[in-house]
Write a structure and sequence with these properties.
Helix 1 packs antiparallel against helix 2. The longest helix has 17 residues. This protein is mainly alpha-helical. It contains eight helices and four strands; from the N terminus they run αββαβαβααααα. Helix content is 48%, strand content 9%.
Length: 167
């Protein structure tokens, strides 16, 4: 575990070189603010991050880039299966096609109980949640569900938590 922690610290330190605004989400995950990177350069920038971590720390990583944390988690999930290890959902034309393949239980922030609720109401994937009306969500669910749906639509509702809480 101490080796894993050491590698994690080295990866996070490397990430800081690319984006000073960073949320360390877990021992092996972080969110970076890449809003200063031009959209046309974002995929290449992601590849540069991945290659630098591989060179400096010696481990492969996967990088998902999007306009929201929820979409970034989905992009990262896809990136893990890609040879390049980097996926950007920024300015993707047909995002519904991608989101249709993401089961509702695999959407970040949707637990087992909420998954069952959505499935019982005919919402089986991320695309369906993205496209359900706000009125339906307000009537049948909670604020967190509304935020998740908005994030799937590309509206950032979950901000970076840059200051890491003491454990």
């Amino acid at each position: 575990y101490s080796l894993y922690g050491d590698i994690s610290r080295r990866v996070m330190k490397t990430l800081k070189h690319f984006a000073p605004e960073m949320e360390i989400y877990s021992i092996d995950e972080a969110f970076l603010n890449l809003s200063s990177v031009p959209e046309e350069d974002i995929l290449q920038f992601g590849k540069k991050i991945r290659n630098t971590i591989l060179q400096w720390v010696g481990i492969p990583t996967s990088i998902g880039i999007a306009t929201t944390k929820t979409l970034s988690k989905i992009a990262n999930h896809i990136a893990k299966k890609e040879k390049s290890g980097v996926i950007s959902l920024i300015n993707k034309k047909n995002i519904d096609h991608i989101l249709e393949k993401v089961e509702i239980r695999d959407v970040w922030g949707i637990g087992q109980h909420l998954s069952k609720f959505y499935i019982n109401n005919g919402i089986f994937n991320a695309s369906q949640l993205k496209n359900v009306s706000n009125n339906w969500i307000k009537k049948n669910s909670n604020v967190l569900s509304s935020r998740t749906a908005m994030e799937l639509r590309g509206a950032s509702c979950i901000s970076l938590e840059i200051v890491q809480a003491k454990r």
